[in-house]
Design a protein that fits this description.
about 550 residues, mainly beta, five-stranded mixed sheet, five-stranded antiparallel sheet, disordered N terminus
Length: about 550
């Protein structure tokens, strides 16, 4: 039986508009091919010209995306294409073949020959590319995608890229230009906190839409627009990456560009970025939303994200009780070689140069037995002991183990949601707690006590995070710990927050508010600890 061999010389002509988030950028997404040992005579030639970067390249099939520019597209040696014969059946080509370009004697991976050993082909046959190991009439957009290297789209074929074209010509001389039918996203996250950026890394991106974006689709007509998956339907795509750096304050594709293939359409997206700090071993998720986002077939869009925007940074907010304004516990001694030392964030570690003897960071030493000692410096705006007691009793504290925050250039998580003082009905409760004024009653107890009951609630805190409707009535306090004689305590475990009240029974003490995941209370403690000053919101 006579073999009909069709030779296809193809350089993907990807003249498509790739749209970036902030500005439009031309991009071209790769198409795939395959090697061949076919030696039969080629009775037809399909040829195409690559209009992009003409310089030879040796990389795998991929789209190298440059914001505002075009993509460099290359084939890989395992790529194959499907061609529709005159009998209506698609035939799979052998793998791509490449020829050296001289001078220099290098292989131009932008040009490939494809041969077919079966089929009869007339004028203008249809060509499909469906990725690796896919039939001509099916395309699978993967719900699980992965990328090992920043700004590398070589997973395109495995993730679900698909293309179609009509080959022009006849009588043994054809050429074609593929038209991409999937849509593509380029995620470009950044971190504007220059202390945190070098210490955190991107782990994965989970994209969730309001309708299917992945699954196996019918590709008989060479189109995806408007179609629902035949099977494996998923509204979510997870892109796993390999510890991509977030040490960039502006969008930087070489630093961390992450690419995803999805079905075209217009979506409401929820995007969950999982980041990790290897030093603290804290991993958490930051969620962004985008509505009415158009993903057009054959186009790539940049998705920008300022990841740590809005995260509470507790750095520089620790003070001895009512130390002078601006004179925080580590002022002038918090950096070594321009960086925060790890000892500031690791529990049980000691950092040098705490104020062991009085200096500008020293606490307020005012005191009188049964005399109110009210803060006049850094702690002056804190709730006094009476008002603070209403937070553990009526604040409906909710422990949140997953909310992220920043401490001295590192990532931490955990803390409480607690009701605002106006939601407590406690805005005017600073004069007393259950009829007793604890600012000057001379109580020797380390905790505040009323009628035999302490403002010391030892029980597992609720894990129910306030709903969106309730959230305006709550504010968040990180479990930011404290420092004692330079030693780091309770970071990520408990929160220590000064009141504006010194003890009226012990010159060494002042009142503080404390919580962890199973207790919350107001007590006296040493004035020289480095405890936090933070707003207890109205």
């Amino acid at each position: 039986m006579k073999k009909y061999a069709i030779q296809i010389l193809k350089v993907v002509s990807l003249g498509m508009l790739m749209v970036a988030c902030a500005n439009e950028s031309r991009d071209d997404v790769p198409s795939q091919s395959t090697t061949s040992n076919e030696t039969s005579h080629a009775v037809a030639t399909f040829s195409g010209a690559q209009p992009l970067d003409p310089a030879p390249t040796h990389t795998r099939t991929t789209a190298t995306h440059v914001r505002g520019g075009i993509a460099n597209v290359s084939w890989e040696t395992t790529d194959k294409v499907w061609v529709k014969a005159t009998d209506g059946q698609f035939h799979l080509s052998n793998a791509a073949q490449f020829h050296p370009v001289t001078p220099p004697a290098t292989v131009n991976m932008k040009q490939a020959n494809f041969t077919l050993a079966t089929g009869n082909y007339g004028f203008n046959p249809e060509v499909h590319y469906t990725g690796h190991n896919q039939p001509a009439n099916r395309v699978t957009i993967a719900a699980a995608q992965s990328q090992a290297t920043p700004n590398d789209f070589s997973h395109l074929a495995q993730a679900g890229d698909c293309d179609s074209a009509t080959a022009i010509g006849g009588g043994g001389d054809f050429h074609f230009t593929l038209d991409h039918k999937a849509s593509y996203l380029c995620f470009v996250p950044r971190c504007t906190n220059t202390d945190l950026g070098p210490n955190i890394f991107l782990q994965k991106i989970v994209l969730t839409a309001d309708k299917p974006i992945a699954g196996t689709y019918d590709f008989t007509d060479g189109q995806l627009d408007g179609k629902l998956p035949l099977s494996g339907s998923s509204n979510t795509i997870t892109l796993t990456v390999n510890n991509f750096s977030l040490n960039t304050t502006t969008e930087s594709l070489p630093t961390n560009a992450a690419y995803m293939v999805l079905a075209p359409g217009t979506y409401n997206f929820t995007i969950a970025y999982t980041i990790k700090d290897p030093l603290t071993n804290v991993e958490g998720t930051i969620v962004k939303t985008i509505n009415n986002f158009q993903c057009t077939a054959g186009k790539i869009r940049d998705v920008r994200a300022h990841l740590v925007q809005g995260l509470i940074d507790v750095s520089g907010t620790y003070f001895m009780w009512d130390a002078a304004d601006g004179q925080n516990y580590w002022l002038g001694h918090d950096r070594v070689g321009g960086k925060y030392p790890a000892t500031l964030v690791l529990n049980g570690s000691r950092t040098a140069d705490w104020a062991a003897t009085p200096d500008t960071r020293w606490y307020n030493t005012g005191y009188g037995y049964k005399v109110a000692t009210n803060a006049i410096h850094s702690a002056a705006a804190q709730p006094n002991v009476n008002l603070m007691c209403h937070f553990p009793e009526f604040g409906d504290a909710r422990w949140d183990a997953n909310k992220l925050w920043i401490i001295y250039g590192h990532l931490q998580k955990g803390g409480i949601w607690i009701k605002r003082r106006t939601a407590l009905g406690a805005a005017n409760k600073s004069t007393d707690y259950w009829g007793i004024n604890f600012t000057n009653n001379g109580s020797p107890n380390t905790y505040v006590e009323h009628k035999g009951y302490a403002s010391d609630f030892t029980r597992p805190l609720s894990r129910a995070i306030p709903t969106a409707n309730d959230l305006p009535n709550y504010f968040f306090l990180p479990a930011s710990g404290y420092y004692l004689d330079g030693l780091t305590h309770d970071v990520g475990i408990g929160g220590h927050y000064w009141t504006s009240s010194g003890s009226s029974s012990n010159a060494n003490n002042a009142y503080y508010f404390y919580f962890n995941d199973h207790e919350i209370h107001v007590r006296q403690f040493l004035r020289w600890i480095g405890s936090r000053i933070a707003t207890f919101e109205n």
